[in-house]
Amino acid sequence: xxxxxxxxxxxxxxxxxxxxxxxxxxxxxxxxxxxxxxxxxxxxxxxxxxxxxxxxxxxxxxxxxxxxxxxxxxxxxxxxxxxxxxxxxxxxxxxxxxxxxxxxxxxxxxxxxxxxxxxxxxxxxxxxxxxxxxxxxxxxxxxxxxxxxxxxxxxxxxxxxxxxxxxxxxxxxxxxxxxxxxxxxxxxxxxxxxxxxxxxxxxxxxxxxxxxxxxxxxxxxxxxxxxxxxxxxxxxxxxxxxxxxxxxxxxxxxxxxxxxxxxxxxxxxxxxxxxxxxxxxxxxxxxxxxxxxxxxxxxxxxxxxxxxxxxxxxxxxxxxxxxxxxxxxxxxxxxxxxxxxxxxxxxxxxxxxxxxxxxx
Amino acid sequence: xxxxxxxxxxxxxxxxxxxxxxxxxxxxxxxxxxxxxxxxxxxxxxxxxxxxxxxxxxxxxxxxxxxxxxxxxxxxxxxxxxxxxxxxxxxxxxxxxxxxxxxxxxxxxxxxxxxxxxxxxxxxxxxxxxxxxxxxxxxxxxxxxxxxxxxxxxxxxxxxxxxxxxxxxxxxxxxxxxxxxxxxxxxxxxxxxxxxxxxxxxxxxxxxxxxxxxxxxxxxxxxxxxxxxxxxxxxxxxxxxxxxxxxxxxxxxxxxxxxxxxxxxxxxxxxxxxxxxxxxxxxxxxxxxxxxxxxxxxxxxxxxxxxxxxxxxxxxxxx
Lengths: 360, 319
Known about the structure:
Chain B: Keywords: Cell membrane, Membrane, Transmembrane, Transmembrane helix. Chain B: Its main location: membrane. The complex is a heterodimer of chains A (360) and B (319). By secondary structure, chain A is an all-alpha fold. Chain A has a domain at 57-297. Chain A is 78% helix and 0% strand. Chain A has helices at 2-7, 10-33, 38-50, 53-78, 86-103, 108-137, 141-164, 184-189, 198-215, 217-227, 229-234, 239-266, 278-288, 293-316, 323-336, 338-359. Chain B has 319 residues and is an all-alpha fold. Chain B has a single domain, classed as ABC transporter involved in vitamin B12 uptake, BtuC. Chain B is built from twelve helices and two strands; from the N terminus they run ααααβαβααααααα. In chain B, 54% of the residues are buried.
C-alpha cells in the first residue's frame, strides 16, 4: 500500500491526468480545424481497441514494446543519463534475435530463450557504447545515442541484406518455429491476435526495474552517481563504471523489446526505411509515468492503445492517424512544462482554498 | 569525363546538400549560445520544409509569380512560430530542454503529415513544386575552371548561406548583442546582475534557431526534393546538431563541419562514378556521416566549447 500511495500522491498523478485531458482536447481542436468530427473519431478509437477480442489482443501487443522502451529511458534517467537511443537499442535487439532465430537450429526450449537473451545483450551493448563514450571520452550521450540510432538503422539493414535476406523481398527469411515467442493458447482465445511472452516478461521487468534500482546496492550506486557524481566519487563509487553499467542495463530493456517484436510478432525482420518509433514513444511513456515503473506501465497502456486505436480513426472516421502523434506530442509537452498545467489548475485551487476559508 | 569537372560537380552537389545543414547549424548556434539546447531542430526543419512546399503549391495554383521566395518566407515564419512554443516551455516555464526538443520532433512530424493528408485528399506528400529554385551562375566567376563549377553556379539559397555565415560570425563576436547573447549562455547569473535580461536573449536565441531551421528545411524542398513528405528531412536536423558540436559552437567551424557532412551525402550520390565504391554497400555510405561524427567526437582532443549554461533553465534564486 505504501508504494501505491507514494506513486499516486496528488501532484504526481494530477499533472499527467490533466495533461492527458489537455492533449485529447488539443487533438480534438486540430480535428475540428481539419473539418473532422472529433467525437466520432474518439469513439472509433475506443471501438477499435475494445470492439472485439482480436483487436484488444493486438492493442495489448502494441502496448508491449512501449513498456520495454519506457523502462529503458527511465532507467537511464534515474541514473542521471539521457538515453535518446532506445530506438537504436530496440533495433539492435531485433537484429540480435533475428540472427539467432534464423541462423541457429536448436530445440525450442533453448532456441527462443537464447534468441531473447542475445537480443537483450545486443541492445545493452549498443547502449553501453554510448555509456563508454561518455565515461571515457566525455561525449555527450544525447548526441552519441542519436547518432547510434541512425547507425543501428542502417547497420541492421546491412545485416538483413547481407546475411538474412529472403530473395526478392524487403525483409529477412522467417525465424525457425523453435525460436517463436508466441503464446499460442492466449492467441487462440483472442482470435489469433499476435500475443507473445514479451507482454509477461515486460510485467516482470516492471518489478525488476523497481527491485534493481531501489533494493540493491548496485541500484543505490547508480542513483547516487546520477544524482551527484561528485559526492558519489567521494564516497568511493566508481562513477565512470556506473555510467557504462547504467546504460547497459537500460539498453537491455530496449533490446528485450526489440527481440520480442521479431520473435513474437513478425517472425522476420523487415528492412527499415524509417525508425519504428518505439524508442521515441518510450521517452513519452517514461516521462508520463514519472520515471516510475508502475507509472510507465500505465503510460504505455495509454500510448499503446492510442496508437493502435488510431488505425480505427482513419478507417472509420477518415481522420489521418497522425492525429495521435499530435495528441501524444502535446501530452508530453504539457507534462514536461507542468508550469503550464498548473496555470490551468490554478483557478480550481483558488476556489477550493476560498471555500475552505469560508467554512472556517 | 575529366577528373576536374567531376570533382567540381561533386563539390557543387556537396554545397547543395550542406546549404540546408549550415542554415540549421547556424540557428542551433544562436540558441545554444543563449543557453537553450534545441534537440528539436529536426522538427523545426520539418516545419519549414512543409510550409515551403505548401506555400509554393498555393502560390503556383493561384498563378502568382515568385513562388519560391514566398515559400521561403512562409518557412521562416512557420519555423519561428514553432520555436516560440519551445521558448515558452523551456524559458518561461523552465521545462527540461532535451525533453521539449524531442517532443517538438514528434509533434511537428505528426502535425505536418496530418495537415498534408488533410490538404491533399489523403495523399502522403504535397504536389510537386513546378517553379522551385534553379541554379544561378555568377558572371565571370563561374567560368573559372573547377572553382567556377564548384562554387559559383549555385542555388540562390547557397549565396544567402555564404552571406549568413559571415553575418552570424559578425553578430556573435563583433556586436554588443552577440556578447550579451553569449554571456547569457555562459553565465546567466552574472549577465542578470549587470542588467541583461536572460529571458529576452534566450527568447531571441530560440526564435532565431526556428527562423534559420525553417529556412534550412525550405532549402531542401525548394532545391532538392521539390515536394514534402514524412521522409523529406529524415535526420538532417540531427546531423546539423552534430555539425554544431563538431564545429565547436562557432559559425565558421559549424559551416565547415556541415560541408563535410554534405560531402558524405554527395559521395553517396556520386559513388557509382568511382570503381572502388562497387565494393561498398549502400548502407555503409548512409551510415558514414553518423559514424564519422562519433569518431570525431570520441577523438577530438581537449574540452568541448559548449556554452557553460546550455541545458540549464535559469533560476534567479540560485544566483
